[in-house]
Amino acid sequence: MAAGAHIKTVLVDSSAGMRSSLSNLLDIYRTFRIVAQFDDVNLANDYILNHPVDLVFVQLSIGNPQYSGDGSFMVGFLSSQNPDLLIVPYSDNPRDAYLTQTLGATSFFTVPVDVMHFQRVIQRISYLFELICIKRESENRTIMIKNKTGYQIAKFSDILYIENSNRKKKIVCVNGSEIDVLNYTMDELERLLEGSSFFRCYQSFIVNLDKITSIRTDSVSRTYTLSLEGLQEEILLSREKQKEVIARLQQRSSNITI
């Protein structure tokens, strides 16, 4: 988890006593900051959509599905509005676990709270929150590139890959635009981007790991290629880097097709 980062948390439950118990339980971990508490689904939804919130704990039985929507509605609605929002519903029925997963919940637990199971829920929340922090950092980071006309600034999140072809290096962006890079070797660019979302997958390619959608293996030629978001052509992946790139992707996200 990012140093000093607190998980901004909202509690939604019709019982003030349960909200207090959950708040006390979360205080043990020292990484959660309760920013709001609600006993009404509509008020909670309105707040969560209009304020910075990382995590929601919601009682499934809260509300009335005929009028305001219940906890299940809230899970499905919020997950569709904000895919990065961590949502943990709970109920007294273990069978609700499958339902909440289909609606996009991050995890699930039953009440009364089993401390050991709740610990596993917290571990999953912490892991996913760390990935989200990495993603946010990457989206906000920029690189200043020297080109023919001077300097150009590009966000990491706008870059698909960097290619070295015929001794000319270029940055290819998500929108299809290209930026010529002067006075840098691929080794120097790799060092400049070390510790970020970029990875040297082949001698002539540095790719943005956040843009990879799949890794393909050709069993006949024994070659590997990467598919990137919105890009028709594939990027070469060296055999020596195949295991490393898979490990890096698994660390960053579980939503990559491998």
What features would you highlight for this structure?
disordered C terminus, OB fold (Dihydrolipoamide Acetyltransferase, E2P), alpha/beta, 2 domains, elongated, 258 residues, Rossmann fold, five-stranded antiparallel sheet, single chain, five-stranded parallel sheet
Helix content: 25-40%
Rg, alpha carbons: 22 Å
Q: What structural class do the secondary elements suggest?
A: alpha/beta
Question: How would a crystallographer describe the biggest sheet?
Answer: 5 strands, parallel
Our count of helices gives: 7
Order of helices and strands: EHEHEEEHEHEHEEEEEHEEEEEH
| Residue-averaged pLDDT | 88
CATH architectural name of the largest domain = 3-Layer(aba) Sandwich
- Distance between the first and last residues' Cα: 26 Å
Shape: elongated
Counting DSSP E segments of at least 2 residues, the number of strands comes to: 17
The CATH class of the largest domain, by name, is: Alpha Beta
Low-confidence parts lasting 5 or more residues at pLDDT below 50? Answer: 254-258
Instruction: Strand order, main sheet: write it out.
Output: 2-1-3-6-7
- CATH fold category name of the largest domain: Rossmann fold
Number of domains: 2
CATH superfamily of the largest domain: Response regulator
Question: Strand-residue fraction?
Answer: 25-35%
